[in-house]
Amino acid sequence: MKRTIMKKKNALLHIALLSTMNILAIQQKEKTTEDFRDYENNASETIKEFYRLNHTHQTLNFVLSKKNEYAALDKLLMGIWDAMNVLDTIVDDSDPDLSLTQSVHAFQTAERLRQNNHPRWLILTGLIHDLGKVLVLFGEPPWAVVGDTFPVGCAYSDKVVFTHYFAHNSDINNALLQTHYGIYTPNCGLANVHMSWGHDEYLYSVVKNYLPEQASYIIRYHSFYAAHKEGAYDYLMNDYDKSMIPLLQLFSSYDLYSKSPEPINSAELMPYYKKLVAEYFPETINW
Fold first, then answer.
1. Which tens digit of pLDDT belongs to each residue from 187-210?
2. Cβ distance 95 to 146 under 8 Å?
3. Between these two residues, 2 and 177, which has the higher pLDDT value?
4. Where are the domains of the chain?
5. Are 146 and 198 in contact (CB under 8 A)?
6. Which DSSP string do the residues of 66-93 spell out, in sequence order?
7. Direct distance between the N- and C-terminal alpha carbons of the chain, in angstroms, rounded to an integer
């Protein structure tokens, strides 16, 4: 019975995804869906250098050290809107599709979800999904904050952007870490896989106790494009992960295709979003 219900949910999510992509393609006048994430034609030298550094330094040991460093959530005590103010100062150097600040992107994503009548928890997820980029406050370099995420501790998939830069990663010389499963076991589940360190994993640890499980999952893996866009690493996923891929794809369609060079009047939207945030979060939380 549970499997039948899950299949029905996945089918509905798939239909919603196709519908959403069509709607957003119409709404997005400047670009077609094929124009987004076009690293081959649109990646600047800055983006290429970002991924060279990212793929060089995101080793298994680095990831484990960062997860340990931030596990206690004892860096700051601040509210969601304090974190949003930090996003006002951040432009994502790894993104070929948007040159506006990340706070603009947050409202663009949330507003598209709201316009299409998605649940309030999903609209909230759209608003806060990139708040983990406050890692810059703690001196983290861009390559340890933004960019696509990928598993460390096993062979790299050729579906990860700029795969050739992994040639400079010291883990490439560890034979165990370059096998198909590496330190993992078949279908062990992504919760047991160490992902490259950045804003996804960090924000997940900050907000997971305040949000529905689906929202936390989206936040944790929304930058894992090799999986939810390219179909890679399915051999590490368990049944739960596989059931969540349609939801990641649905969210990604808003995260990605809502990007526009047009600024958004966040002041007019604040009454709605202030109330929404207050439904789920106290005035301050640990970061």
1. 999 999 999 999 999 999 999 999
2. yes
3. 177
4. 2-286
5. yes
6. HHHHHTT--S-EE-HHHHHHHHTT---T
7. 40
